[in-house]
Amino acid sequence: MIDTSHIGRELPVHSVDVERGRLRFFAKAIGETDTVYRDTDAARGAGHPDIPVPPTFLFCLEMEVPNPFAVYEELGIKVSQILHGEQRFQYHAMAYAGDQLTFHGRITDIYSKKGGKLEFVVKDTEVTNQDQQAIASLRSVIVVRNP
User: What percentage of the chain carries pLDDT values higher than 70?
Assistant: First the structure.
């Protein structure tokens, strides 16, 4: 069983620079056809200061740490037992190429179901930009399959 004393645990804060090239690559990878996500002129023509961050790209940036699974390993969870359970994004403001985004995460819940065969770890992350403006609130839930 995962030790529930980790509820409330703050995770290491990290910051990531949002790069145009990565935004363009991501837009292409997800099949985004709106040119504002690939072309600076199109983005500015649509009223944006630069290429906007596509909605789910924040998940990619959140994983920009040397070992994105370190927190789970520290909880004694084997990566091979993890299933992606849920991902939510609540947006407060737009982020753009050239921004520096900071991710403040913490474990907000740990619970089990099916007599402990399934355990759930809930992680909430607040994202701010270089001006300390709130950009988004993220929630991810992983499911741990126990034998």
Answer: 100
**pLDDT tens-digit profile of 95-115?**
999 999 999 999 999 999 999
State yes or no: pLDDT of 94 exceeds 90.
yes
Q: Could you give the domains of the chain?
A: 4-18+58-145 (3.10.129.10)
3 state SS of 49: coil
Q: How far apart are CA 125 and CA 102, in angstroms?
A: 10
Q: State the Rg of the chain over Cα.
A: 17
Q: For the chain, what is the total number of helices (H) and then of strands (E)?
A: 4, 5
CA angle 5/76/71 to nearest 5° reads: 75
Whether 69 contacts 22, CB under 8 Å = no
pTM: 0.93
**Who contacts 3 (Cβ-Cβ below 8 Å, separation ≥6)?**
75, 76, 110
* Whether 106 contacts 124, CB under 8 Å: yes
